[in-house]
Amino acid sequence: MTAGTMKRIVLARHIVGVPTPADFQLETLPIPALEDGQLLIANRFISCDPGTRSRLSPGASYAPPLKPGQMVDGFAVGEVIESRHPKFAVGEKLMGTGWATHMVSSGRGYLAKVPDMDVPLSLWNGILGVPGMTAWFGLKRVAQMQAGERVLVTSAAGPVGATAGQLAKIWGAGHVVGIAGGAEKCRWLTEECGFDAALDYKAPDFDAQFAAASADGWDVLFDNVGNASVDRALPVMRMKGRIVISGQVADYNLTPQDAPGIHHIREFIGKRLRMEGLVVFDDLPQFPAAQTELAGLIRAGKMRYREEIFDGIASLPAAFCGLFTGQSFGRRLIRI
């Protein structure tokens, strides 16, 4: 039996508006003795995911909202340090969930073994985890992107957007443009990630930049931002264009009544557009094949990524809140 304590982050109160560190609470608990069929995981990296915000207010999202006092269940990658489960051995690396230093699991839910693919462990909580798989299946299954098409990616310097844009180029897109905030992010997208162009939404002339870049229209919009972003692109979508709703980082902190509306609905009729949301766990059975191919691209130097690593679970609330104030540049991870 493993003795000692664990730490976890719980929701202190339902959040209204932009989250603050005071909305969370750090707790210290004893590590319980394992029962038959359980295993103990020591988390090594915990991620900050914008989508977590959708569960921190009382209204229902695609997953039930958390209650105050419940642990926040963001994604994590860790190592089995004790096991009474026949399918999991001590020393195995696992992808799972939980804003905690340790997790006791029955083996159910999202818990996947990390194969040895000669890449850093942190990537399994980033480009090889949910963000990378969201980009992969958003383009493959939802957008059904074809070679030669024009692709627009919003929040393009984030882990989902950057991966989506690079995959679009690798898979033969004719022209890929990203929208990001700030000159540094835009330079990274074009100089490191191979985007054909990047538009700075913070620039005074952004509207003119967007109009010029959109002169030939878009076959695919991969949107991570929200309603205003989608509405801007609708008039410049091409015939039979596809819109992937991957995330809504600009709208997560707004009530449905306060979120911007989508006005250019007529474009769907005349251009036969299709818009579809994405919850990547629908594609869970296909993760291993996609991860194997993506890991090969990483080892070959054909896929770029950025990480922002913070140390200690106590740093997690502030790092998470920074996602919504424009501070982040890359995958935000907490090293335990």
Give a quick precis of the structure.
By secondary structure, the chain is of the alpha/beta class. The chain is 22% helix and 26% strand.
Describe this structure in words.
With 336 residues, this protein is an alpha/beta fold. It folds into 2 domains: 153 residues, Alpha-Beta Complex (Quinone Oxidoreductase, Chain A, domain 1), CATH 3.90.180; 152 residues, NAD(P)-binding Rossmann-like Domain (Rossmann fold), CATH 3.40.50.720. Helix content is 22%, strand content 26%. Helix 1 crosses helix 2. The chain is globular and about 65 Å long. The mean pLDDT is 94.
What Rg, in angstroms, do the CA atoms define? 20 Å
**Mean pLDDT across all residues, rounded?**
94
**Helical fraction:** 10-25%
CATH names the topology of the largest domain as Quinone Oxidoreductase, Chain A, domain 1
Amount of beta strand: 25-35%
Strand/helix succession: EEEEEEEHEHEHEHEHEHEHEHE
DSSP strand count: 15
Query: How far apart, in Å, are the first and last alpha carbons?
Result: 21 Å
Which structural class matches the secondary elements? Answer: alpha/beta
Return the domain count.
2
